[in-house]
Amino acid sequence: MTSCACATLVASCASGSKDGADSNQANDASVDSTACVMTTDEPIIMAYPDTMLSSVKQVDFRVDTFLNDISGSLLQLTDYYEKSPGILTFRGAPTRNMPFSGRVKGTPSKVNVEWVFKTDVDTTRTDYGVWGGGTGWTGQPLLAEWDNEQLNHIRTSASEYVTDHLSNREIIVGSLCGKVYFIDYLTGKASRKSYNVGNPIKGTMSLDPTYCGNLYIGHGVPARQPFGALIVNLFDHRRVDTFGRDSKAWRGWGAYDSSPVRVGQFMFRPGENGTLYKLWTNGDTVRLHSTLRYRINGAAPGFESSMAVSRNYGYLSDNHGNIVAVNLETMRPVWHYRNHDDTDATIVVEEENGTPFIYTGCEIDKQGDNGFCYFVKLNGLTGEVVWEQKIEGRKAELGKTTEGGMFATPLIGHGDCEGLIFSNISPMQPDNWCNLIAFDKATGEIRYRTPLKFYSWSSPVAFYNEKSEMFIVTGDTYGNIYIISGKDGKVLHRSQIGNNFESSPIAVDSCIIVGSRGQEIYKLSIQ
After folding, report:
1. Of 101, 137, 141, 310, which has the fewest CB atoms closer than 10 Å, so is most exposed?
2. For residue 70, what are the CA distances in angstroms to 36, 149, 400?
3. What is the DSSP letter of 28?
4. pTM to 2 decimals?
5. What separation, in Å, do the N-terminal and C-terminal C-alpha atoms of the chain show?
6. 2-17+36-526 CATH, one of 1.10.357.10, 2.130.10.10, 1.10.8.280, 3.30.200.20
7. Are 183 and 192 in contact (CB under 8 A)?
8. For the segment 358-396, what is each residue's pLDDT rounded down to a tens digit?
9. Which 8-state DSSP code applies to residue 2?
10. Would the pLDDT of 3 be above 60?
C-alpha cells in the first residue's frame, strides 16, 4: 500500500502578522510548495488537536510568517531520526528520550580510556571570561554514519578539508574554543580539519537527519562578531546560512545553545533571544518560514534548553520557568504551565496509550539562595500536573554563584528498570552536592538517591546487558565517571578521568564519547 503522509495531518491553520516578511530573510522559494511526500507502508500518525487552552491567556504571543507562498504544513509526522543512522541531535530524538544506548556483557565494573582527542584553546578575554577549549554544557557530540556514496561525495567535494582518517563513523563536536571538530570514531584521529565558527560553542549542534549534509551550529558567547547561528554543509564545507542579531526579537541576548530539531519539511531552532524559528528546508536549501515570540507578565524569556517534540507539538522550557506547548503547524501556543524557576534542562516526552507525557525540572535561581527543584510530570495535551516532587537545595559560591537544581536531561529506564525515570539533581550542599535520583514514572515516588561526589550538569546515558539489566553511566563536574546499577542505585565504579564533565555523553557500542572542560574529548569503554 502506498499512501500520502499529508493525509495524516489535520488541516493547517497558518497564523501570522499581516506586516509580512523581513526582506532578506524571506527569500523566494523555487520549488513546488504543494509537493506531497510519498511513503510506503507507513503507519498513519494522527496530529494532536489544534487547540488553545485557557492557560494560554497568560501568554502574549506573536507569530510572523515570512514565506507566505509555502504552507506551514509539516507534511509528515514520521520521525526522521528513528530512520536515520547515527546520533544527530541532542539526546538523539525529537522526544529527547535518548533512544540510543550501549551494550555490555555481564555487570560492568571498569572504565577504560580508548583515546583522547585534544582541542585548541582560545584565550580571548570576553565580557563573560575566557572560555578556553574542550566542551561545556550541554556539549554533546554527534555521531554521523555516512554511507560509501556520501563518503565519496565528501572526499571529492571537500578534499582540501578531509584527512586519511575520514571513515563511515565520524564524531562531530563543537568546542568552547570556537571550532567544530571531526574525529574518526575508531582511532580518535582528526577526520577533517576543524571548522572555525568564531565564537565558543556551548550547546549541542544538530545534523539534518535526511543526511543532506547541513550542520546547525549555535554560538554560546560573543567573543567576536557576528554572533548568532550558522549552517554549514559538510559535503563541501560551504556556509549555507549565517544568522546574526534579530532586530525583531523581544529579548536582546542572541546565543543559541538549543539543539535544533527537524519535523517534516521544517527545522525548528529556539534562540536565547526568546524566538522559536521555523526553517523551511529543501535538500540543503534553508529559508526562514515563520517565528513565534512570547511574553509572560510583560517579560520575554529565552530558551537554553532544546525543544522536545511529539508528533506536531513542540515543548519549550525557558529561563523564566515557563513550559509552553506549541502546535508546530501553526506556531501558536496550545497550553502554558508555570514551573516555578529557570528551566534549562531539556524536557523529555513519552507517549502512554497515545497520550504524550512530559518530564521536566527547574533550577534554584530566581527563588533566591535557597529553594526547591520541582520535578514534574505533565499531560502533554493539556499541561495538567500528573505529579510533582520537590527536592530542596540552594545556590553555592564556587568562585561564582552556581545555581542548584536540575540542569541534566532525564533518562527513561527500560529493561529491568521499566517504569523508572532518572535524573541528576544537585542540592549543592557540602555534604550532598548531587544525587542520581530514580523516580517512579507512574506516581513520582523516589525509589532511591545515589550520591555523587560533586554537582552534575551532565545527562546520564544507559547501557544494557544480555539480561536486559540497565546500567547508568554519568559524569560530574569534578571529572568523575560513574557506573551505577539502574535497579538499586549501587555505584559499581567511580574514577576521576577528566577535568570537568559538564557535557553530556553519547553511548555507542560499549563506549561513551564525552567532552571535558579543558581540551579533551574522550572515548571511554565500559567493561
Report:
1. 101
2. 13, 32, 48
3. P
4. 0.92
5. 46
6. 2.130.10.10
7. no
8. 999 999 999 999 999 999 999 999 999 999 999 999 999
9. E
10. no
